[in-house]
Amino acid sequence: MKNVLLKSLIVFIVMSLSNAQFISWTLRLTYLPGGNYGILPILIFMECAIISIIGFVTVLIFKKQYNSIFRIAVLFEILYLLLLMISRVNPFLYFFERIEDNLIDLLLYLNSFLIFFTILIFEKCLKLISSKNKNLS
What we know:
The chain starts with a helix and ends with a helix. The chain has one domain (4-136). By secondary structure, the protein is mainly α. The chain has helices spanning 4-30, 34-37, 40-61, 69-86, 100-136. It is elongated and about 55 Å long.
């Protein structure tokens, strides 16, 4: 992908939808009550939409610096983690007080890192495939 704006838009959309979907799956796997946590995936998606807009504007302003999927994913991850910190979501409280709210906070961070590393692996695979295609040509 050569177009930086298209690439950034795709990365932001994929990371936003993945964060919302992963927290939905996580809630389903932990069997937490849906009445208390059922709206959380929608809230995470709204947060990610705000982050995507901020990130896209940042990429528009500094277009030359964001030429790889890695840099765009790092931008999204920094903004996401910053917004979680501003929201007073502390992942380390679960290790001191094991309650459901602290577990959700921890899982928000773990899901985010899992998605980030998945994007990095995807970028490495794309580079590997493109280098093999160049060698065959």
